[in-house]
Automatic annotation (TrEMBL):
This is Carnitine palmitoyltransferase 1C. Pfam families: Carn_acyltransf, CPT_N. One of its GO terms (molecular function) is carnitine O-palmitoyltransferase activity. It comes from the Eukaryota. Belongs to the carnitine/choline acetyltransferase family. Residues 721-734 have a biased composition (Basic and acidic residues). Residues 1-47 form the Carnitine O-palmitoyltransferase N-terminal domain. Residues 719-750 are annotated as: Disordered. It is a multi-pass membrane protein. It comes from Monodon monoceros (Narwhal).
C-alpha cells in the first residue's frame, strides 16, 4: 500500500555528523495551520450535529428540560435556586405587560445553560471512560469486574440512540509516545535483519539522534498534539499519500472482490443498477448518520472521521503535491464504456432512481453504438501517470474540456462497464482468480479513473469489483461500504427470475449524457506516453489469489492462539523458505481508537519470530525443545450480521489486495472467510528475479500446514504428560473445509 511504498522510498538524511535541530519558524507555521484545519473541521461537524441532533442530547431533550422547568415554575418551585430571578433582573424591562415574557426568556436561558453543562459533563465523562485501555489486556473470553463496570458506564453515558458521529467529540486524542521508547522499539525491529556491524552503526546513530535532535522534534509533536486533533494523521495523509509523485495504479490504489463462488445475475446492466442503488442508499444513510459507529470487540467505539469522504471525492493532481476535493453532494455518476464517457443522473425531483430505472440507463449506455473520439478511449491513462505529469496535462484539459472534466471529477463515484468477463471459473479456477485480481488492480491502464475515491467495476458477466484510491481513508472504511453494498444489492434488492432488477423501467428518463472532450494536439502525446507507462506497470504485476481451505480461524482458535499472529508466523516461515533470509515486514494496524486516527505499522519480523522460523527449519530440534511466544493481535469483524452464511454458504467474498511495496518484494493480503477458509492475495513484480507470487503461495500453504502440525504435536505431547488421550494428529489429518463467512482483510508488505 502507499504507506509501505513511501517507507521503502524514504532515505533518512541523518548522518554521523548531524548537528542539533534549531527552532524552525516554518515548522511552527505548519503546526499552526494543522490546528486551524482541525478547528474548521470541528466547527463544520458541530454545525452538522446541530442540524441532525446533538449527541448525547437532541434538541428535543432541550425542549423537555425547558418544559420541566416551566412546569416546576408553574407549581411555584424554583429548580434554579434563584438563578432565574437574577437572569430576569438582567433582562431589559419592557413594561408590565411583558413581565411573563421575561420569565419565559429567563427559563429558556437557564435551560440552555443547564442543557449545555450536562452535555459537556457527559462528553468529559465519556472521554475519560474511553481513555481506559485495560480491556485490551484481558484474556479472550474473560472480563474482569473492573472492565465490566467500565463497559456498563460507557453504555450508560453513550445514550440510547447512537449515530455514526456520536462518539467523535468524546474520543481521546492519540498520545505522543516517548522518543526513548520509539527509538528502543525501532532498534528492536531492525535487529533481526541487520548484521552486527550494521546494527552497531544504526544504534550509534540512534544515540546521537537522542542526544542532539530528539528533544526539539518531540516538543514539536507535543505542541501539535495539544493544538490539533491528531498529532500525526494530517501529516501522514500529506507526506505519505498526497506528496507522492508515483503512479496511483498498483503503487497506491487497492482492490476489493465480489462474492467468490456466485454471481447473483449475469446481466451486466442489472448488476450495475442494483449496485449503484445500494451504494447511494449507503450514502443516504451516511448523510443522515444512520450508520452505527463501529465498536471494537463490541465494546470500544472507533473514530468515524474517515467516512466523510467516501463519496463525491476526487484526488486532484498537483505539481508538488495533490489535494483532496470533496463536494457536499453529487447527483450523478461518471460511466466509462468502450472508450466513451457518460454522465448518468442518479436522482429526479422525487428522489433516487429505482434499481430498474438505473438498469435501464446502464443498458442504454451498453446499447449506444457511437464510437469513441480520437484519444478519448485512452484518456483515463493520464490518471495512472506520475502525478506531476498528470497535473501539468490536467491544466490544459481543464481549459479545453472543463465541462467533461467536471462531470467526472464531480461525480459521486466512477463506474466502469467492462467488456470482458471476470471471476472464478470451473475450467481454470487458479488462473481465473489471478486474472480477476489483476483486472481489478490495474485493468487495461486506461479504463479506470484512478483519482476518484473509488471506481465500481462491472464486468460483462455481471461480476463486480472495486478499485479504491487510498489517500482519503483506509481499507476498513471502504470495506464497510462494500459489505453493505453486496448484502443490500443481493439479499434486499434482489433480482427477478430472468436476472433483471425488480420494478419497472422509467421510459420518461432522458438518455445518459455523452461527455465530449475537446483534446488539444499537445495532449495526444501525453496520453500515448501515459498509456505506455500504464501498460508497462500493469504488465509487470504478478497477481496470485488462492483460497486455503485445509483449515480456518476456528481451527486456530481451538489452540487458544491469535489467528492473525498464527498467519504472521506462517508468512515469516514462507518468506524465509522463499528467499532464504528475513526482512522488515509491514503489517497495517489501525489507530482509530483515537480521534482522527488512521493507521500504524506492526513490525512482525521480531527476534522471537526469527527464532521460531529457524527452529522450524532445524531438523535436529523437536517440537518440545522450546516454548515459543506468539504476539497477539485482533482482526475485527465488521458486518457479519449482513451475511447468512448458514443459509447461503456460497455468498462469501474473497477480500481484496494491493501491489507490492518494493520492486523485489511481495504484497500479501489475507482474509478470514468465516471459520474455515483463509484467502490470500499475493502480488509481486515480474521484472524481479527474486520474487514469484505463485511460488510464495505454495510456501505459504506449506508453512500453514507445518505450523498447524507443530501445534497439534505440541498439544499431543502436553496431553501425554497429563495422562490424557494422546491420539496424535499429523499434517495429513488437518480438517479440510471449503466455505466460510465474511471478515475484513489484514494487509502485510514484505
Amino acid at each position: 500500500m502507499a504507506e509501505a511504498h513511501q517507507a521503502v522510498g524514504f532515505r533518512p538524511s541523518l548522518t554521523s555528523d548531524a548537528g542539533e535541530v534549531e527552532l524552525s519558524a516554518p515548522m511552527l507555521q505548519e503546526i499552526y495551520l494543522s490546528g486551524l484545519r482541525s478547528w474548521k473541521r470541528h466547527l463544520s461537524r458541530f454545525w452538522n450535529d446541530f442540524l441532525t441532533g446533538v449527541f448525547p442530547a437532541s434538541p428535543l431533550s432541550w425542549l423537555f428540560l425547558f418544559s420541566a422547568i416551566q412546569l416546576a415554575w408553574f407549581l411555584q418551585l424554583d429548580p434554579s435556586l434563584g438563578l432565574m430571578e437574577k437572569i430576569k433582573e438582567l433582562l431589559p424591562d419592557w413594561g408590565g405587560q411583558h413581565h411573563r415574557l421575561r420569565g419565559v426568556l429567563a427559563a429558556a436561558l437557564f435551560a440552555s445553560c443547564l442543557w449545555g453543562a450536562l452535555i459537556f459533563t457527559l462528553h468529559v465523562a465519556l472521554r475519560l471512560l474511553l481513555s481506559y485501555h485495560g480491556w485490551l489486556l484481558q484474556p479472550h473470553g474473560a472480563m474482569s469486574s473492573r472492565t465490566k463496570t467500565w463497559l456498563a458506564l460507557v453504555r450508560i453515558f453513550s445514550g440510547r440512540h447512537l449515530m455514526l458521529f456520536s462518539y467523535q467529540r468524546s474520543l481521546p486524542r492519540q498520545p505522543v509516545p516517548s522518543v526513548q521508547d520509539t527509538v528502543r522499539k525501532y532498534l528492536e525491529s531492525v535487529r533481526p535483519v541487520l548484521s552486527d556491524e550494521d546494527f552497531d552503526w544504526t544504534a550509534a546513530l540512534a544515540r546521537e539522534f537522542l542526544r542532539l535532535q530528539a528533544s526539539l522534534l518531540q516538543w514539536y509533536l507535543q505542541l501539535k498534539s495539544w493544538w490539533a486533533s491528531n498529532y500525526v494523521s494530517d501529516w501522514w495523509e500529506e507526506f505519505v499519500y498526497l506528496r507522492s509523485r508515483n503512479s496511483l495504479m498498483v503503487n497506491s490504489n487497492y482492490y476489493m472482490m465480489d462474492f467468490l463462488y456466485v454471481t447473483p445475475t449475469p446481466v451486466q446492466a442489472a448488476r450495475a443498477g442494483n449496485a449503484v442503488h445500494a451504494l447511494l442508499l449507503y450514502r443516504h444513510r451516511l448523510n443522515r448518520q444512520e450508520i452505527l459507529p463501529t465498536l471494537l470487540m463490541g465494546m470500544r467505539p472507533l473514530c468515524s472521521a474517515q467516512y466523510e469522504k467516501i463519496f463525491n471525492t476526487t484526488r486532484i493532481p498537483g505539481v508538488h503535491k495533490d489535494h483532496i476535493r470533496h463536494l457536499r453532494d453529487s447527483r450523478h455518476v461518471a460511466v466509462f464504456h468502450r472508450g466513451r464517457f457518460f454522465r448518468l443522473g442518479t436522482h429526479t425531483q422525487s428522489g433516487l432512481l429505482s434499481p430498474r430505472a438505473l438498469e435501464q440507463q446502464f443498458q442504454r449506455i451498453l446499447d449506444d453504438p457511437s464510437p469513441a473520439c480520437p484519444h478519448e478511449e485512452h484518456l483515463a491513462a493520464l490518471t495512472a501517470a506520475p502525478r506531476d505529469v498528470w497535473a501539468q496535462v490536467r491544466r490544459s484539459l481543464k481549459t479545453q474540456a472543463q465541462e467533461a472534466l467536471e462531470a467526472v471529477e464531480g461525480a459521486a463515484f466512477f463506474v466502469s462497464l467492462d467488456s470482458e468477463p471476470a471471476g472464478l471459473t470451473r475450467e481454470d479456477p487458479a488462473a481465473s482468480l489471478d486474472a480477476y485480481a489483476h483486472a481489478l488492480l490495474a485493468g487495461r491502464g486506461h479504463d479506470r479513473w484512478f483519482d476518484k475515491s473509488f471506481s465500481l467495476i462491472v464486468f460483462s458477466n455481471g461480476k463486480l469489483g472495486l478499485s479504491v484510491e487510498h489517500s482519503w481513508a483506509d481499507c476498513p472504511i471502504s470495506g464497510h461500504m462494500w459489505e453493505f453494498t453486496l448484502a443490500t444489492e443481493c439479499f434486499q434488492l434482489g433480482y427477478t427470475a430472468d436476472g433483471h432488477c425488480k420494478g419497472h423501467p422509467d421510459l420518461s428518463l432522458p438518455q445518459p449524457q455523452r461527455l465530449h472532450w475537446d483534446l488539444p494536439d499537445k495532449i495526444h502525446l501525453s496520453i500515448s506516453l501515459a498509456l505506455r507507462g500504464a501498460k508497462t506497470l500493469s504488465g509487470n504485476i504478478d497477481c496470485h489469489v488462492f483460497p486455503f481451505s485445509h483449515f480456518g480461524k476456528s481451527f486456530i482458535k481451538r489452540w487458544h492462539l491469535s489467528s492473525d499472529s498464527f498467519i504472521q508466523m506462517a508468512l515469516q516461515l514462507a518468506y524465509f523458505r522463499d528467499r532464504g533470509q528475513f526482512c522488515l515486514t509491514y503489517e497495517s494496524t489501525m489507530t482509530r481508537l483515537f480521534l482522527e486516527g488512521r493507521t500504524e505499522t506492526v513490525r512482525s519480523c521480531t527476534r522471537e519470530a526469527c527464532n521460531f522460523v529457524r527452529a522450524m527449519e532445524d531438523k535436529e530440534k523437536t517440537v518440545h525443545s522450546e516454548q515459543w511466544q506468539l504476539a497477539t493481535s485482533q482482526t475485527a469483524v465488521q458486518q457479519i450480521h449482513l451475511f447468512d452464511v448458514h443459509s447461503y454458504p456460497a455468498y462469501v467474498s474473497s477480500g481484496g489486495g494491493f501491489g507490492p511495496a518494493d520492486d523485489h518484494g511481495y504484497g500479501v493480503s489475507y482474509i478470514f472467510m468465516g471459520d474455515d477458509v483463509i484467502t490470500f492475495h499475493i502480488s509481486s513484480k515480474k521484472s524481479s528475479t527474486r520474487t514469484d507470487s505463485h511460488r510464495l503461495g505454495q510456501h505459504i500453504e506449506d508453512a500453514l500446514l507445518d505450523v498447524a502440525a507443530l501445534f497439534q504435536e505440541g498439544q499431543r505431547l502436553k496431553r501425554r504428560g497429563l495422562g490424557e488421550d494422546d491420539s496424535g494428529h499429523s499434517r495429513d489429518s488437518l480438517p479440510c473445509h471449503t466455505r466460510g463467512s465474511r471478515a475484513p482483510t489484514t494487509a502485510t508488505n514484505f
